[in-house]
């Protein structure tokens, strides 16, 4: 007697499943009208979680990454335009929570670390880039982003180098990946090593690439760490100007224009108002609270911008250079801080 077996279910091809999922995400919801799709709804819910009492900088970055890699960012172009401005206004708002006298002290303490780490990172980046046989422009962009302030430095140095879009994308992708990792692991390492608020704030400012993740990690550690990290990092960002000018000289770029980080002046102005205009001090906590919310949203948008395409575009050798530079500056600066800073 012949035994019949039930037919095996025919599974959809992975490519067909992805296409069906993508079509579902962009299908307008009939209940709320044609403007709202499942993709936009998930994006909006994640955004609301970020600004809720449960939101935090690491969670915001993680949610942004999940949105980017699972459903995609439905507002990719708008996110790029908003992210930079939102970060700048958030940094200015943080200035209302700082005292000018304490900031000067923190800046004075961090100046030697800043000069040594920037010079050391750019020099090491040159030799590592040659060892890995990287394109000189890509190598210099990665080194500049690691040495100063991540994406801001790359955005400022790129036009001076006359770097093309692919070189900029590779450098930004490599730096942003490591910058995202740093936001999660630095607070954990700081607690494990029993770093003081002063030590951790200084370490963040030197070893984490972007201002957004520096402030995010430091705010997760404590208010004093946040003040020190923000002040030292913004003082460090001013080195974009001499590094960009030096880049124009070394790469012999005629007519190069250097983009100045003007928002740092806004931060200094807010800090001076908070220190010397007592009538504004009752409003300072509100400004700082809004600035922290803006920073959290910035990190969400940064995470949402790291698509799978961006991650694939980096390549092995540029990522190896970026990782070597980051690990080196992190380890050396931590050793120096543990032995010289209380």
From TrEMBL:
It is found in: Cell membrane. Keywords: Cell membrane, Membrane, Transmembrane, Transmembrane helix. Pfam families: Cons_hypoth698 (PF03601). It is a multi-pass membrane protein. It comes from the Bacteria. The chain crosses the membrane at residues 41-74, 86-104, 110-129, 141-161, 167-188, 200-222, 234-251, 263-284, 290-311, 323-341. InterPro entries: UPF0324_pro (IPR018383). PANTHER family: INNER MEMBRANE PROTEIN YEIH-RELATED (PTHR30106), UPF0324 MEMBRANE PROTEIN FN0533 (PTHR30106:SF1). Belongs to the UPF0324 family. This is Sulfate exporter family transporter. It comes from Hymenobacter lucidus.
